[in-house]
Specification:
The protein is of the alpha+beta class. It has one domain: 2-Layer Sandwich (Peptide Methionine Sulfoxide Reductase, Chain A), CATH 3.30.1060. It is about 40% helix and about 20% strand. Strands 7-6-1-3-2-8 form a six-stranded mixed sheet, with helices on one face. Strands 4-5 form a two-stranded antiparallel ribbon. α5 (about 140-155) links the parallel β6 and β7. α2 packs across α4 (about 100-110). The two termini are about 30 Å apart.
Length: about 210
């Protein structure tokens, strides 16, 4: 297991180098001179993904919500039916002078979820739990594709990455009780089994990016 982790981290390091070339344009959601940019990821239940990014240096805010499908039906009960096309997602607002988009990708692929699981994540099944990146400009798209190609080429994982890479079309915040769920419910059995280990992985794999909050 340790060898696999090191190989994956090595592939991510290569992907960072590849993705960083010629992809410095800012997010189209923000003014060109903004010190805030936005990234949108889906990787299973948003509770754990949100919690991981909340502990990343340079991240200003993380919201749980819905992206990738019908905007008029984006509420938890409806999205949970798997019929809206939406995925449980997180919108990450970050300061690009402190953390880069490629570093966020490294956390997404290396800690936040398993990118080889198709339309599921751990105990959760359905397209609403799919792995996805919703890019906001051509730079983010290029970096995401470079990451996937580099990790697949390295054969560090037992199966190919299945992460969807799609253009960002909108995001709706989830209900208030989903926001900061791990921080407010650290003893929830689901959190203990599925999500607290992700924070420990973040500390071990990316100590320079980890911050306590």
């Amino acid at each position: 297991m340790k060898k696999i982790i090191l190989t994956v981290l090595g592939a991510i390091s290569i992907a960072c180098s590849v993705a960083a070339v010629g992809t410095s344009e800012p997010s189209s959601l923000d003014p060109p001179t903004s010190t805030k940019q936005t990234a949108v990821f889906a990787g299973g239940c948003f509770w754990g993904v949100e919690a991981v990014f909340e502990h990343v240096k340079g991240v200003i805010d993380v919201k749980s919500g819905y992206a990738g499908g019908a905007r008029e039906k984006a509420d938890y009960e409806t999205v949970s039916t798997g019929t809206t096309g939406n995925a449980e997602s997180v919108m990450v607002t970050f300061d690009p002078t402190k953390v880069t988009y490629t570093q966020l990708l490294s956390v997404f692929f290396g800690v936040a979820h398993d990118p080889t699981q198709l339309n599921m994540q751990g105990p959760d099944h359905g397209t609403q739990y799919r792995s996805a990146i919703f890019y906001t400009d051509s730079g983010q798209k290029a970096q995401a594709m470079a990451f996937i190609d580099a990790i697949n080429q390295s054969k560090a994982l037992p199966k190919p990455i299945v992460t969807e890479v799609s253009a960002f079309k909108g995001f709706q915040e989830a209900e208030a009780y989903h926001q900061n769920y791990l921080a407010r419910n650290p003893n929830d059995p689901y959190i203990v089994v599925n999500d607290l280990p992700k924070l420990e992985d973040l500390k071990v794999k990316f100590p320079d990016l980890y911050v306590d909050r």
